[in-house]
Amino acid sequence: MLTNWLKIALINYKKNRLSTFINLFGLTVGLTGFMLILMHWNDEESYEKRNPKKDQIYAFQSLYKRIHFYGENISYPLAFTASEKIPEVEDYLLFSGSNIGAKMTTKYTTTFQQGGFATSESFFNFFPYKIISGNAKDALKSNTSIAISRQAAMKLFGTANAAGESIKFDDKIYNVTAVYEISEGNSQIKPEFIFKPAERFEYDKTQWNNFNYGCFFMLKKGVDPSVFEKKFKEILEQRAAISAKTSGMSAQQFSYLYGPNVAFLIPLDQLKLHAKASWFGAGDFRTIMILFSLSVLIVVLSAINFINLKTAEASQRAKEVGVRKALGGTKLSLMIQFFLETFIICVLAYVLSLALTELLLPTFNKFFNKEIQLNDWHIYAYSFAMVIVVTLLSGLIPAFYLSNFKAIETLKGNFSRSRHGVWLRNGILTLQLIISSFFIIGGLIVHSQVKHMMNKDLGFNGKQIILIYFNETVPKSWLRYERLKTEISKINGVEEVSYGEAVVGGQKSSSNIDYQKESINAESGSMDYNYLQFMGVKLLKGRWLNPNLASDTINTIIVNEAFVKKFGWTDDQIFQRELYPGFDNGKKYKVVGIVKDFNLKSLKYNVEPVMFFHYKQTPWKRFNVYNIQVKIKPDDIEGTVNRIKQLWGKSVEPGSPFDYYFIDQKFAKTFEVYQKQQTLFTILNAMVLMVALLGLFALSSLMIEQKLKDVAIRKTLGASDRTLVFGLTRQFLWITVIAVLISIPICYFLMDEWLKDFAYRIDMPVWPFVVSFLVLLALTFAVVSIKAYKATKVDLIKYLKYE
Q: Quick check: 403 pLDDT over 80?
């Protein structure tokens, strides 16, 4: 019996070559997209999975309710107090810096080493790397201890057995206490060297409000993190009570104004993709889910094609069903046969999709900057499960439909003239066109939003400006900047030199700004006198900082529009107020200028309040000047950069890399994620349209073939080709109109939700909906009319000789 079923299946595959090809092609494309997105999701979820203590380690996060801001930082006293007063805490780990670069000198060589982490001493308790040389237990006990990776040891000493050796960096001698092997697998925490910033820890021990650290807590086995979160709330109240005493307000007022108000923990292995905020950079789970949903939608679309084509072929197989039922065939045996035919196509599509996935994987990896391989059994299992779902979805419906034919009706030959199954086919075709319409509308709106962001005025001009990093940990870093400014200004091709802390891709720091009982959080923007003019920022009111006024290095600031709006004042009111920044021990500041908002992060976010002041105004900023920015004349940009590079290598930081970037190019990188989304949507859009149109062509071919006798009769009675073509395509055009009208409110809702993520968004445009309507209508007419026109050339004698 099985052999007979297979023979029948092969005969039908051959007889309906076009629909067989379309089903196979659509399922292969859909399953390939599904597997690629699934691999991307699986890779993002795999971070930190190999840490043996991952079930006990949690990252600290907090919520500032007043401004609805999620933070990843903690102060030293909060972390220390939690470890002392919450018995469920086994250990804690602080981070004060990651991906640190430093010029290192040993008795063998001098080289620049990237990837350093500044942490507290319990690092190896949280991340138990294999120790090659030395001892992990007390590796960071001393203030002069340093642990290095095997790769760093080979680079610095030429051997992995480097415990006991010495390294000099930042004018300090460190002793190598351990050499470790970085664990394999995906991880955001892969340090090349680890040291303890002892002086910083010592200073911050009593600073409850200096939220300078990332933190992991290790809870005892079996402890529910909610227990920690409840008890930590009491410590936050203690911190508010201590801080409120010096601020002249109640603990409740202090907690409301400054926060954080809520603390919560996230498991280590969920940090990469599910964190609200992360010291190491949070992933974009929402985008992955959108892509995954769209990939599933394409598979569903392919299954819809399968169902539609199978039911459209019903008239060709009606007599087969009637004969087999007349000979004693059961409904169950017929269903199994038809289901088997579907399963063969689905399995073949699965095999082809595996091959296509392997072929596309290098391009996919390059696009997402990954190194994924098709070697995870989960991918095979989940994708095969999708095949089973598709087989059930696209196999059972046609099988049930075909097996229900009545033997008497089909053997009489009346089936082809009945309307049996028309509503099912039309309903499924409508669903297919709704999905196609959604992709067209969504793709056009995504394109419009990205174009809107690309063309928006940023409020500054970063063209021909390069930012060069230098080591700010050297003593009196502001004096180094001033010396460099003088030397670089003399280089041929340099137009102007300046320094600004608040810059695209630069370091970020913020502080509370108080006025009486009001308070906002604002970014700190220490700078040189000319920085805002250097960046082409517009002055709206007041004046610039003036090097001839002593007050402009003591207590004067310039603020942006967002700063004024955050306080709810008018421009004139802010010039009359005396403000108290939280970083300067109660010293009052006066606003002397307001500048137009300019965007430093991404156009996805609103411009935050920023206060600009001279770097000499406070020791906190004077000792942390970390870059120099150079505006280059346009006639010889490459030559000027090379001349600056030569000066850098000779007299500025010999042995250190010339680490620079162009400001405008750096900001352009903030668009990459949206440009990639646009590219992916375009690819998915093309795939959907291709699968949908091929399915529509095959379906229209089958349905028009069933009407060839009607066409022959009407043509004999004098109907013109135009009338016949319109008559054959009219049904499909009406279905398209209905599908687009149904898709419009669905698309509007979903795309409006997507646009809500952007601070600078377009108004919902009307034209994508109109374009979708016209494009689908035109494509439907073009695809169906090809077959309809061929039908008008039918051989009249062939179809009318028995009438």
A: no
Span 574-619, pLDDT tens digits: 999 889 888 777 788 999 999 999 887 777 778 889 999 999 888 8
Whether the Cβ atoms of residue 322 and residue 414 lie closer than 8 Å to each other: no
Pairwise CA distance, residues 321 & 318, whole Å: 5
Quote the tokens at residue 686: 């093309």
| Total tally of structural domains belonging to the chain | 2
Query: Per-residue pLDDT tens for 632-675?
Result: 988 888 889 888 888 887 766 666 678 788 888 777 776 777 77
Q: Is the pLDDT of residue 547 over 80?
A: yes
pLDDT of residue 456: 74
Q: Strands 130-134 and 494-498, how do they pair?
A: unpaired
Identify whether 749 is part of a domain.
Answer: no
Which of 212, 234, 260 marks a domain boundary? 260
CA distance between the termini of the chain? 39
Give the residues across from 216 on adjacent strands. 59, 93
| Cα three-residue angle 440-446-452, rounded to 5 degrees | 135
How far, in Å, CA of 644 to CA of 577, rounded?
Answer: 43
CA–CA gap between residue 111 and residue 103 (Å, rounded): 6
Q: Given the structure tokens 């009307």, which residue do they identify?
A: 766
Interatomic CA distance for residues 301 and 299, integer angstroms = 5
The structure tokens listed for 768 are 């994508």
For residue 595, give the amino acid letter. Answer: V
What is the C-alpha to C-alpha distance for residues 655 and 111, in angstroms, rounded to an integer?
6
In a domain, 657, yes or no: yes
Q: How many CA atoms lie within 13 A of 747 on its CB side?
A: 28
Which pair of structure tokens corresponds to residue 490?
């003399």
Rounded Cα distance between 95 and 59, Å, is 11
Residue 208 inside a domain? The answer is yes
Instruction: Write out pLDDT tens, residues 274-283.
Output: 998 888 877 7
Judged against a pLDDT cut of 60, whether residue 366 lies above it is answered with yes
pTM (2 d.p.): 0.78
User: Which of 631, 654, 669 lies at the terminal end of a domain, its last residue?
Assistant: 669
Domain of 108 in residue numbering reads as: 66-260
Q: What does DSSP assign to residue 459?
A: S
Does residue 354 sit within a domain? no
Q: What is the pLDDT of residues 305-334, one digit of tens each?
A: 777 666 666 555 555 666 565 656 666 666
Query: Among candidates 516, 426, 491, which has minimal Cα distance to 650?
Result: 491
Burial of 577 (0-12, 13-18, 19+ CB in 10 A): middle
Contacts with 104 (C-beta within 8 Å, 6 or more apart), sequence order: 110, 111, 112, 113, 156, 167, 168, 169
